[in-house]
Amino acid sequence: MKENPFVFTDSNKRYYTYDYYGKKTFGGKVCKVPLDGGFTCPNIDGRCGRGGCTYCSGRGSGDFAPSPLLPLTEQYDAVRKIMDRKWKVTGYIPYLQAHTNTYAPVSRLRALYEEALALPGALGLAIATRADCLEDDTVALLRDIDKRTHLTVELGLQTIHDDTARRIGRGHDFAAFLRGYEKLAGLRVMIHLIDFLPGETPDMMLGTAKAVAALRPHGVKFHMLCVLRGSALEKEYRAGGFSLPGKDAYIDILCRQLEVLPPETVIGRVTGDAPEELLVAPDWTRKKIDLLNSLDKELTKRNSCQGKFVETIQKNG
């Protein structure tokens, strides 16, 4: 076994896991609890589009959150019970995940955020949103909450390439993302990326990672593109509009992306989860533990780690 050169770890991991961050920040394991606040999205209701992004399910990426018909407390308790059976948990981060959780009048947002913060065992708050849904009064509310608790804003980007964004019906371009990101300066922002979007090459994906690295966000979440039953993407996939890679190709680009990210950037996840009953492809994403182990082995084989090439990139401009 080659010696692990990575600093932010207490295991064999060669990237800055959210698990390690939680231990160092809160003194133990911290779990995000997915919740559905009953929001919609400007890419669904017609403000900038209809039907959502082509990869999106009807739950707006909140497939593991309980029903929005349930009160927030009941949603929270239901998910917490499952997590408590798996792990010894220090505390929880209520995670408003489904759809766009800043897309409402600030009065409604304030009431929901305060309700989430008051949940038992809550150590902070995570809010998933889009860069084009950050009104000035909403940002002021986020800054107020950040002063009182551990706030993370989870901001979907997916790709910096505007042609891809149009193809997947994203509803805004990279310039709009940058404007939204700038509004959140000083806050913890976790940027979401999707690899192997239709038409994207490994060099394009690496370019996205490099552009995100230059922003020096608090964190990044990586997702392998999954085709879900009932999504617009399913129709394109079944019609032969694009193909999906094998596990090895995903591991390769993931290693290359981690190598260009600053070592202090928290990696919220290195792959997404898709509900078993909805997943059309790729089938290998069902074996998450195998994927995580394969990533660890490949980084060790390369004698590599997160941030390996950051200094070189900075020197070369």
CATH architectural designation: Alpha-Beta Barrel
Number of beta-strand segments: 9
Structural class: alpha/beta
Q: Give the CATH topology.
A: TIM Barrel
Oligomer state equals single chain
Determine the number of helices (DSSP H or I, runs of at least 4 residues).
11
Could you tell me the radius of gyration in angstroms? 19 Å
- What is the CATH C level class, in words? Alpha Beta
Largest sheet geometry = 7 strands, parallel
- Please give the domain count: 1
Low-confidence stretches: 313-317
State the helical fraction.
25-40%
Overall pLDDT score:
92
Element order: H for helix, E for strand: HEHEHEHEHHEHEEHHEEHH
Question: How are strands sequenced across the largest beta sheet?
Answer: 1-2-3-4-5-6-8
Give the CA-CA distance, first to last residue.
34 Å
Shape, please?
A: globular
Brief description of this entry?
The protein has helices spanning 18-26, 72-86, 106-117, 136-148, 162-167, 174-183, 202-215, 232-238, 247-260, 288-301, 310-315, and strands at residues 30-35, 91-96, 124-129, 150-158, 188-195, 219-224, 227-228, 266-269, 279-281.
